[in-house]
Design brief:
about 300 residues, seven-stranded mixed beta sheet, 6 helices, alpha/beta
Length: about 300
């Protein structure tokens, strides 16, 4: 087997497959780890090859992009694609997110996709990672300055902020990513408050894929006290929910992330017991350097083919 970072992550083992490609290719299967736009092929509505994803990811791809041509793969079940055997694992990032265990020629490789070992309120479970020969590890927060607070405490802080705002006669606005984070905010407001949740039209559209599975309660209009959840808000009074808010001093900024922080990434690298680690995305060079300092064989994945 050989791999490289090119059109997404490319694997070649007599036959080829693509992981989160930029564009699909004729007669080459594509595996989509989750439905965030930076992991979805640009030609998702009219792909040139077959696309495979979990049922949760497929439902978001339908509601968000109008893609109705996705082949469903199931967590823990084998799918054979040419010379590859593929097993999806829960990634804990957003609904439907998955890592992929891929086996060919007695080499086992695991691609994490975007991963969260702590899970959330609108995912199937926290991430699960098998022991493998080769690990392809996302590195969004692969810098040691990114160590997040307890996510459950952050959820409580968000709920408390929303209650205080409504109690003061205001209709607070929470800005969060359209896919995944907005639905997480709806779920935490449903669970920890009795506040009515109003969402913008784009958030409502995407949330339909989550609604039944996670019993989300929201509306698009309200004349009474409410909280508005949207992916785009104007003004300085809004709350913002993202891991990048970690160092913000604003009262309404909450560092709730759907990714592993630095310690989480290191734990994944160690617990999967790989003989080789390739880092991708984000702080991939920094993370690889730290892992090498601790005796792990790690390097950023680049554009040249690497034989495994």
């Amino acid at each position: 087997m050989r791999i490289r970072l090119g059109n997404g992550i490319e694997l070649d083992c007599g036959k080829r497959i693509l992981l989160d490609p930029i564009k699909t290719q004729v007669d080459i299967p594509s595996l989509i780890s989750h439905a965030h736009s930076d992991h979805v092929p640009r030609d998702i509505k009219n792909p040139r090859g077959k696309i495979y994803a979990t049922e949760g990811t497929a439902s978001i791809l339908r509601s968000r992009y109008g893609a109705d041509n996705v082949e469903i793969v199931h967590y823990g079940e084998r799918t054979s694609l040419g010379t590859f055997d593929v097993y999806p694992y829960p990634a804990g990032h957003i609904f439907g997110s998955s890592g992929f265990l891929i086996v060919c020629d007695d080499v086992s490789l695991f691609y994490t996709g975007d991963i969260n070992p702590y899970g959330g309120l609108t995912v199937e479970s926290p991430a699960r990672v098998p022991e493998v020969d080769v690990l392809i590890l996302e590195s969004t927060y692969g810098n040691p300055k990114y160590r997040f607070p307890d996510p459950q405490k952050i959820r409580i802080h968000i709920a408390k902020w929303a209650i205080e705002e409504v109690s003061s006669g205001r209709s607070p606005v929470i800005e969060a990513y359209l896919v995944g984070k907005s639905q997480e905010i709806i779920a935490l407001l449903n669970r920890y408050t009795n506040l009515e949740v109003v969402v913008s039209e784009p958030v409502a559209k995407v949330s339909e894929a989550f609604k039944e599975r996670f019993n989300l309660k929201f509306t698009k209009h309200s004349d009474g006290p409410h909280v508005l959840v949207t992916h785009r808000a104007v003004g300085e009074d809004k709350a913002r929910v993202t891991g990048w808010a970690l160092f913000s001093k604003r009262r309404g900024d909450f560092p709730l992330s759907a990714h592993a922080d630095f310690d989480g990434l290191v734990n994944i690298a160690v617990s999967s017991s790989p003989t080789k680690i390739f880092t991708v995305y984000g702080f991939r060079r920094e993370l690889a350097n730290w892992l090498k300092k601790w005796g792990l064989d790690a390097q950023p994945l680049g554009g040249n083919w690497v034989e495994l």
